[in-house]
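Deliverable D4.2, example record:
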Amino acid sequence: MSSEFLQLAEKVTQLAKLAQGLREENAELRRKVKLLSEENTTLAGRVDDAYRRVSTVLAQLPVAEVAEAPEAALSADEETA
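Output generated by the structure prediction step:
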């Protein structure tokens, strides 16, 4: 009976160590998720800023009018098909 009790105690100890390890891993993963979420927010803001700057520059560019003959447009369309 003493042997069974020692085996059970050892298994409980192993389970406690495993649970503690999982808690620590969970805490570390939560920290990483928080950091990555913050980085994602920062990068999304930078992308939005870049999009606005590019849109502003594109809006300032003059629009070039293309004077193509209708036959040339059809010919170009047929070549791409």
